[in-house]
Amino acid sequence: MCNHSFIICRCEEVTINDIQDAIAAGALNSHEMKMSTRAGMGMCQGRLCRPLLEALMPANHKESVHSPSKLTFHQPVRPVSLAKIVPKENSI
């Protein structure tokens, strides 16, 4: 039995029901699912939910094994403090 309120993407609070609705509305691949539900677009950039999202795609909608996932990470992958980027100036 499937709990339709089970959250797949914690960052954007996308549920299984949201994913199933996107597929029923015509999302044919993970990229279209991402654009219609915002799953994978949160703080973690899909690092936590991408495997679940790709597993939820029906077999007849799955992308070719040879094409890379459309649920890619975007920069910055990890937060960096400004102190590491900008050198301190000598005070005069």
UniProtKB/TrEMBL annotation:
Keyword tags: Oxidoreductase
Name of the molecule in the record: (2Fe-2S)-binding protein
Upper classification of the organism: Bacteria, Bacillati, Bacillota, Bacilli, Bacillales
Domain of life: Bacteria
InterPro entries per record: BFD-like_2Fe2S-bd_dom (IPR007419), BFD-like_2Fe2S-bd_dom_sf (IPR041854), Metab_Enz_Cyan_OpOx_G3PDH (IPR051691)
Domain BFD-like [2Fe-2S]-binding: 7-57
TM segment ranges: none
